[in-house]
Structures are given as structure tokens and as C-alpha cells.
Design a protein that fits this description.
Elements (H helix, E strand, L loop, with lengths): L2 H15 L5 H22 L8 H13 L4 H20 L26 H9 L6 H16 L3 H5 L6 E2 L4 E5 L5 E5 L2 H13 L1 H5 L18 H14 L8 H14 L4 H8 L4 H22 L4
Antiparallel strand pairs: 1-2, 2-3
Helix pairs in contact: 1-2, 2-4, 5-6, 6-8, 6-11, 11-13, 12-13
Length: 298
């Protein structure tokens, strides 16, 4: 076994044992590093310990010429960075050749959103003649009305909702608490669920969770994802849908109707307004299409 193979094996073992990465992730890292090892041995004729920054940059150029996407190139560079970071920590090398190499510029991914008619159809889809439909409608209404993350929605406790003020306390990333208002329609759906359904689901069991299953347990992310897909089919939405699309739709529809960007940032729980600004691109598309439809010279 060559020195390079030993270094690579040591890193992969570190990922498996100390980092606890899944076998599939370790396999992906191994594939990326083996590819670089072949390049270093055949094209550069250098071992890992002698690789320099220019060598890594030339590898990135070679990947680009092969037709790899920017995202695939970025993943391979990230793997290489992690590898050399490990080697430096273990004092197996003294120089990080990836340090000054810039990754490829990734295309900005715009969030996919539902149209307002699609949202209306989805919210109207649950059959409220049965208890589960009442609960599902309340969950869908609240998520669209507040823009909560799915983990925040299913993690809500009874004490987190103030029906009198129509405000929900959400605990986002890092345990940060924020208050988010919701509208009257969502309030009425919640009230119906709490008055007629939740107690029947929990029975005598003491439970602090707001949304519960028919057996009285807490609703899960997977459970909510399934109900979203179910009601999307009933609503006739024939494109991929996820709970997060309701959050994206909440933000986009607010901005389309003139909401302040800072207010939307606060409601979404974004620490950086740059994260929220991605929704303005969606709104610009809306304005552009509106201009094209209605302007006499459009």
C-alpha cells in the first residue's frame, strides 16, 4: 500500500469512526479523493504531501473541461479541503494546498413556490367532516399563515399559541424564539381543531404537543410531509410539493403584495436579510410577468 493510500484510508476511517458519517457519505468522499489521487499521480506525478495550490487549481480547471457542473466541482473541492484539514490536524502535512483556491461560482437556486390559486386549493382540500381532516386543515392553514419551518410547526406546544392575540411563538435554529402573527382564517381552523378534535385524539393522556396523531402522540415531520402530499393530490396539484414550499409561498406572496422585507425576515426567523432577499427575485419575476400581460407595450 502506497503512502497516499494510507493517508486516504486514515481519513476515511476518521470520517466513519470519529465523525460518524453514513457509509454512503464516506463512499462519496472516497470517490472524490480517489479521483484526485489519480490526477496527482498521473498528471502531476506528486504524492499528496507535495501537492501545491496551483496543482489544486489546475485540477479544478480540468474538472470544468470535463463538463462537470459547478456544484459537482464544489463538492470535490470541499472533500479535498476536508482531507487536507485532517492531514494538518494529524501533523502529516504542513501546507494546505486548498487554502487559496476559490471554488466555482454556484448558480443561485430560486425557491419553488405555489401559486395563490394552488395554495387556496390545498388549504380547502382536507375533508373537515372527519377529525383528521380538521387537524390537517389547521396545520396547513397555520403553516401558510405564519411561514413556520416544518420542524417548528410539529414542535409547537399548547403554550406556544395565543389564540386571543393570534400569535405563535416559534423556536427556530439555535433555539431562537420569535413571535409570528397569523390571520383570522388560521385562527378559526385552530380553534375548531382544539375544541373538537385534539381532546378526542389525546383522550386521558397528558400531552403538551399542539398537533397530535389519532393515537395521541406528537405529529412528526414525516407525518406532516405525507399529509401535505395527500391533500396536494386531492387539490389537483400535479407537480412536486413539500411542506417547505408552503413556507416559500408564504414569503413570496407577502412580498408580492407589498410587505416590508425586514418584516418578512423577522417572521421567517432569518438571521441575515440576504437569506430573505432570495424571495425578492421571485417577486421580480411576478412583476415582470404582470408587466408583460397588462402593459400596452409589454
Amino acid at each position: 500500500m502506497s503512502d497516499d493510500d494510507q493517508l486516504l484510508d486514515a481519513w476515511l476511517s476518521h470520517l466513519r469512526v470519529e465523525k460518524g458519517l453514513a457509509a454512503r457519505s464516506v463512499e462519496a468522499y472516497a470517490t472524490d479523493l480517489v479521483r484526485f489521487a489519480v490526477y496527482a499521480r498521473q498528471d502531476l506525478q506528486r504524492p499528496f504531501v507535495d501537492v501545491e495550490g496551483g496543482d489544486v487549481a489546475s485540477w479544478m480547471i480540468a474538472l470544468s473541461k470535463e463538463g462537470l457542473t459547478a456544484r459537482a466541482q464544489a463538492r470535490k473541492l470541499s472533500a479535498l479541503r476536508g482531507f487536507y484539514k485532517f492531514l494538518i490536524a494529524e501533523r502529516l502535512v504542513t501546507n494546505d494546498p486548498t487554502k487559496l483556491v476559490s471554488g466555482p461560482r454556484l448558480p443561485r437556486k430560486l425557491p419553488h413556490v405555489l401559486t395563490f390559486p394552488e395554495v387556496e386549493a390545498l388549504l380547502a382540500a382536507p375533508d373537515v367532516s372527519n377529525p383528521r381532516g380538521v387537524r390537517d386543515r389547521a396545520m396547513l392553514q397555520l403553516m401558510y399563515a405564519s411561514g413556520l419551518r416544518v420542524s417548528e410547526l410539529v414542535g409547537l406546544k399548547m403554550a406556544d399559541v395565543d389564540l386571543d392575540q393570534a400569535v405563535v411563538a416559534a423556536f427556530g435554529k439555535g433555539g431562537k424564539r420569535r413571535l409570528v402573527p397569523f390571520g383570522e382564517v388560521a385562527r378559526e381552523s385552530l380553534l375548531q381543531y382544539l375544541q373538537t378534535v385534539r381532546g378526542a385524539f389525546t383522550g386521558r393522556r397528558v400531552c403538551s404537543d399542539l398537533f397530535v396523531t389519532q393515537r395521541g402522540g406528537a405529529m412528526t415531520r414525516q407525518g406532516f410531509w405525507k399529509l401535505v402530499k395527500r391533500w396536494a393530490l386531492v387539490a389537483g396539484i400535479d407537480r412536486p410539493i413539500s411542506p417547505h414550499k408552503l413556507r416559500h409561498s408564504f414569503a413570496t406572496h407577502l412580498l408580492e403584495r407589498g410587505a416590508d422585507l425586514r418584516a418578512v425576515q423577522t417572521m421567517l426567523g432569518h438571521s441575515d436579510i440576504v437569506t430573505t432577499q432570495i424571495y425578492t427575485h421571485v417577486s421580480v419575476d411576478h412583476l415582470r410577468s404582470t408587466h408583460a400581460r397588462f402593459h400596452p407595450r409589454g
